[in-house]
Amino acid sequence: MQNVLRDSSPEKPRVGIRAIKPDETWHIDTTVIRLVDSTKAYLHAVIDNYSRRILSWHVASRLETASTVTVLLEAINSRADLDGPPTVMTDGGGENVNGKVDELINSGLMKRVLAMTDIRFSNSMIEAWWRALKHQRLFLHTLDSADQVRKLVEFYVEEHNARLPHSAFRGQTPDEMYFGLGDGVPGELEAARAVARQKRLEINRALACQICEPQPA
């Protein structure tokens, strides 16, 4: 009985792929966004594994292979100092595995691995970002056109990259991680937390002293 219980215990969650520098590993994916008139918008995006920064994105009214090529080229062209070709993780969808994308891969600008095929990991990093985008931004609005989706995505990408501190980076934003500008942020936040803790301690002590003081007759 003990063996049965031990064998049936859940496995520890796997740690996904973790790059050690920016532009080492990218993830690309497409998500479908339903509009109020029952039509669809297709959002393509590339996220950097190391920093979680959104490198490029594109909203289209149709699912086309050209959109995948577009976001990959935008990501490549955004940096002139790439230290070797990045490895791009994709799923096996037709928008990612086709002649046009193959030409780009064969050019040597990047490498491609298929999630759950070439490697045992899923494309969960960008899938998690889709969920955050939809529930924190898109689903709060009436989505009546691809143009509106585009505006909402543009705002959220800017917030995600430049303003929202990421818990995985001890308060640094994806931009700060990607460009190496936030090394002092964790220390600054820890110092601020220490000051806040000290103030709370002083307030609590003062309140305790007031309670303990004898009241005048």
Label the structural class: alpha/beta
Number of DSSP-assigned strands: 5
Tell me the span between the first and last alpha carbons.
70 Å
Strand residue percentage = 15-25%
Residue ranges: pLDDT <50 for 5 or more in a row? 184-196
Strand order of the largest sheet: 3-2-1-4-5
Seen as an oligomer or otherwise, the chain set is single chain
CA-based shape: globular
| Helix content estimate | 40-55%
**What's the average pLDDT?**
84
CATH architecture: 2-Layer Sandwich
Number of domain modules? 1
CATH topology: Nucleotidyltransferase, domain 5
Number of continuous helical runs = 7
Q: Please provide the ordered H/E string of secondary-structure elements.
A: HEEEHEHEHHHH
CATH class: Alpha Beta
The Cα radius of gyration reads 24 Å
CATH superfamily: Ribonuclease H-like superfamily/Ribonuclease H
Biggest sheet statistics: 5 strands, mixed
Topology:
Layout (H helix, E strand, L loop, with lengths): L1 H6 L17 E10 L5 E9 L5 E7 L4 H13 L9 E4 L8 H8 L4 E4 L9 H13 L9 H18 L10 H6 L5 H28 L5
Parallel strand pairs: 1-4, 4-5
Antiparallel strand pairs: 1-2, 2-3
Walk me through the structure:
This protein has helices spanning 2-7, 65-77, 99-106, 124-136, 146-163, 174-179, 185-212, and strands at 25-34, 40-48, 54-60, 87-90, 111-114. It is α/β, with parallel strands linked by helices and 217 residues long. The chain has a single domain (25-179), classed as Nucleotidyltransferase, domain 5 (2-Layer Sandwich), CATH 3.30.420.10. Strand 1 (25-34) and strand 2 form a beta hairpin. The longest helix has 28 residues, at 185-212. The N and C termini lie far apart (70 Å).
